[in-house]
Amino acid sequence: MIKGIVFDFDGTLANTLPVIFACYDYSTEKILGKKADRAPFIETFGLPLTVCLTKIFGKEKGSRICEEYRAYQELHHDELIRPFPNVKETLEQLQQMHIPMAVVTSKTTATCLRGARCLGIDKFFVTVIGSDIVTHPKPDAEPTRMALERLGTRPEETLCVGDAPFDIMSGRAAGCKTVAVKYTQVAREKFTGTAEPDGWIEDITDLLSFNLREGER
Predict the structure, then answer these.
(1) How confident is the model at residue 217 (pLDDT cuts 50, 70, 90)?
(2) Which stretches of 16-141 are DSSP H helices?
(3) Catalytic (active site) residue 198
(4) Is the pLDDT reported for residue 215 higher than 50?
(5) How far is CA 159 from CA 48, 85, 151, in A?
(6) What's phi and psi for 70, nearest 5 deg?
(7) DSSP string for 109-140
(8) What's the CA gap between 199 and 120, in Å, rounded?
(9) CA distances from 144 to 27, 111, 214 (A)
C-alpha cells in the first residue's frame, strides 16, 4: 500500500522544456558562438545543472555557460514554464486522500519552489528537497531519504515518480517503489539496470489507480 509519494519536478510535474531549451540555446550560443546540440544535454537530465554543463563542455566553458544559463533563466523563467495536463487536479485529489507528497529535484530549492508557485501547486507538498541542501544529489539516495524523513513514510510504502533514469536510481537506492512517466524526453532504453522502474504511467492521473491509503496521515 502506497502511503506517500516523492515526485521529480522538471519533466514530471512541470513542462520546463521551454525554459530549459531557451536557456541552453541562449547560453551555449553566447559562449560558443553557436547553439550546441541538445542531445548530450538531454542525456544528463536529472543531474544538477553545473554537473550537466561541465560534463558536456568541461569545467571552464561549462561554468561560463552555467552562469549565462542562470541569468537568462532568472529573466524568462516565469513566462516560459508550462503545466502538464491534469497535474494540479491530480495533486489536489491525492491531498484529499491524505497522501503526503514531496518533491526531490536537481534544481535548487528556490528555483523549484518558484516554478511550483507559478503553476499553483506549491501548497501540495510537505517539503521540497533541492540539490543545494544535500551533499549527494540524485542519483544518490540521500535526497530521497531526506524526503522520506520529512514525509514520515517508510521506503517500501513510498512511490517515487520521475522522468529520468537518475530519478529512478535515487528512489531505488532509497528502497522505494518507482515509476517513470511515458512522456519523458529521455530515450526509454536509458532506463535499464539500476534505472529500471517498477512501472510506467501514461498520465499523472494513473497514480490515482494505485493502491493508495485512505484515511488520516
Answers:
(1) very low
(2) 17-32, 39-42, 49-57, 59-80, 87-96, 109-119
(3) no
(4) no
(5) 22, 20, 12
(6) -65, -35
(7) HHHHHHHHHHHT-GGG-SEEE-GGG-SS-TTS
(8) 28
(9) 31, 18, 23
Tally of CB atoms within 10 A around 31: 21
Quick one: angle between helices 109-119 and 59-80, nearest 10?
20
pLDDT in tens, 40-55: 999 999 899 999 999 9
| pTM score, whole prediction | 0.90
pLDDT for 108 beyond 50: yes
Mean pLDDT for the stretch of residues 84-92: 96
At residue 199 the predicted structure's pLDDT band, cuts being 50, 70 and 90, is very high
Residue pair 44/51 in contact by the 8 Å Cβ criterion? yes
- Catalytic residue (one of 8, 10, 163, 167): 8
User: In which element (H, E) is residue 170 found?
Assistant: helix 165-173
Q: Which three cell numbers stand for residue 10?
A: 522538471
pLDDT digits (tens, 9 = 90+) for 141-158: 999 999 999 999 999 999
What is the distance between the alpha carbons of residues 146 and 153, in angstroms, rounded to a whole number?
11
One-letter amino acid of 2: I
CB 204 within 8 A of CB 181: yes
